[in-house]
Each structure stands twice: as C-alpha cells, then as structure tokens.
Amino acid sequence: MATATGTATENTVTLAKVGQPAPDFNMPSTKDIDTLKENVKLADYKGKWLILLFYPLDFTFVCPTELIHFSDRLEEFQGVGAEVVGVSTDSVHSHRAWLKTPQDQNGIAGVKYPIASDTGGKLAKAYNILVEDANIALRGLFIINPEGVLQYSVIHDLNIGRSVDETLRVLQGLQTGGLCAADWTPGQENLKA
What we know:
The protein has a five-stranded mixed β-sheet. The longest helix is centred in the C-terminal third of the chain and has 13 residues, at 164-176. The protein is of the alpha/beta class. It has a single domain (26-32, 44-176), classed as Glutaredoxin, CATH 3.40.30.10. It is built from five helices and eleven strands; from the N terminus they run E-E-E-E-E-H-H-E-H-E-H-E-E-E-E-H. The chain has helices spanning 62-72, 74-79, 92-99, 122-126, 164-176; strands spanning 2-3, 23-24, 26-27, 40-41, 49-54, 82-88, 115-117, 130-131, 136-137, 139-144, 150-156.
C-alpha cells in the first residue's frame, strides 16, 4: 500500500491516484464511541469496497446533511459489499460530541458508520484535499476496491454536498468490471467493446 508520511526531517507524501494502491491509514475513530480506543485502518476493509467520505468540520451546516444521508442509506452500501468511513481533521472527542448531539440540534446522532480523526491532516494531504492554512479537508469522496486500489475520486468545494445516489451508481458501475455508458444505471447492460 502507498503510505502518507511526514516528519520534521522528512516531509514526503505519496499522493493518491486512481488506479494505484490507496494511501494506508490507521486513525482514531468512533468505532467504539464509549472508549474511543478502536482505530480504523485500511486493512480493516480488505475484501470490501470502501467509501472514504472526507468533510471539513464537525458542527457545521452542509456536513451533517451528508453524513446523515449516507448513514440513512448505509444498508444499501453494505448490500453491495461496501462500507463507509467519515473523515475530518477534528479530534475524535469532537466527533463523539457531535454523534451524541441530536439531529434537531445540528448533531449527527444515529450515524451508523465510524468517523475517523485525521487531526494532523496527513491522510487529507495524501488525497490532495487538505486546505493547509485552515487544516481542514475539502469534500473528498473516494472509492477503494477490495484489493485496496483507489478506483474513484471526486472533490467538491466546501459549500456543495455529495450525492448518495451518484455514489451508489458509480460504485455499482465499478463493480461490474465492464464499460458503463454515461448515465448508466444498475441493471443496464455494459457496453460491448
């Protein structure tokens, strides 16, 4: 796997590229919301498709709409062999507080997938979405295949949320292993070469 590295003496980052191994990660997460002692690792998802859902900040406005919408449809992702992990540069303690805040109070209570903490922005930098001055991530969505290879990348400005429908469509298109025409939808034939 490619790795995201950065130390005081070495500031080398292998940037994520579609068709190449996804940058490895091991980050604190809300997998165990009580203890916050269970990290998420790329290796945890070997054999499954993974949707990495980077967002700018906890307790904001567009972010909860996305995280909740992806959670509401998590069973659809799992039904096609995929998992979702949310990622921001906020601390895992901030994530837990947000997860414990009711949705009618701008919280994300009930979100069913783990939220990871990339506090130093190392993984966001590896995906080339880190806004360094603010140490926040742009809205980046990445699909990694069961072998750990990055298959899809889409990056949005901070103001625009992502589409769950489009993410599912692309995921299922990738899973066919074939050629998918514009506006292809699950159940349609692949193009014949």
